[in-house]
Amino acid sequence: MSVHPAERPDELFPRPQLSFPSLRAALARLAPSRVPEMLADRDTLFTKATETGSFGPIKGFQLKWATIIEIERRPELTHRMQQAQHAVHTLDKDDPAWRAAMAEVLAIHDEARAAVTGD
């Protein structure tokens, strides 16, 4: 029997659609302090899309923020990311634990991105 994403105990609420309004609403609920960052990013990338006549920047924006939201909506991923980022910011870059923390940050990002893209 498959479980609906909203029913999984490791998720705060269902994965949003990739539309800007859905992503913004999800971020406002999960990490409201990051909404200004998202809006600034949107303005920059939508301007770039207009200037280049390409949807690439918009698709990149959607994927970036869907990945961030995926991490935020899954408390276990959020906790792992916070721990790894703390290590990255406090350890010396020559410390093998720093490299392990960086690898963990990348692994978490890749896991979240794969969940969003279905890969």
Structure, described:
This protein has 119 residues and is an all-alpha fold. The protein folds into two domains: 57 residues, no CATH class; 46 residues. It is 71% helix and 0% strand. It contains five helices and no strands. The longest helix is centred in the last third of the chain and has 22 residues. The N terminus is likely disordered.
How would you concisely characterize the structure shown here?
The chain is mainly alpha-helical and 119 residues long. It has helices spanning 20-30, 35-52, 56-73, 75-90, 96-117.
Distance between the termini: 21 Å
Strand portion: under 5%
Order of helices and strands: HHHHH
The shape, in one word, is: globular
The helix fraction, in percent, is: over 70%
Instruction: Kindly report the oligomeric state of this protein.
Output: single chain
> What is the helix tally?
5
Rg measurement, Å: 16 Å
From the helix content, strand content and strand pairing, which structural class follows? mainly alpha
Comma- or semicolon-separated keywords:
119 residues, single chain, 5 helices, globular, mainly alpha
Walk me through the topology.
Elements: H1 20-30, H2 35-52, H3 56-73, H4 75-90, H5 96-117
Helix pairs in contact: 1-3, 2-3, 3-4, 3-5, 4-5
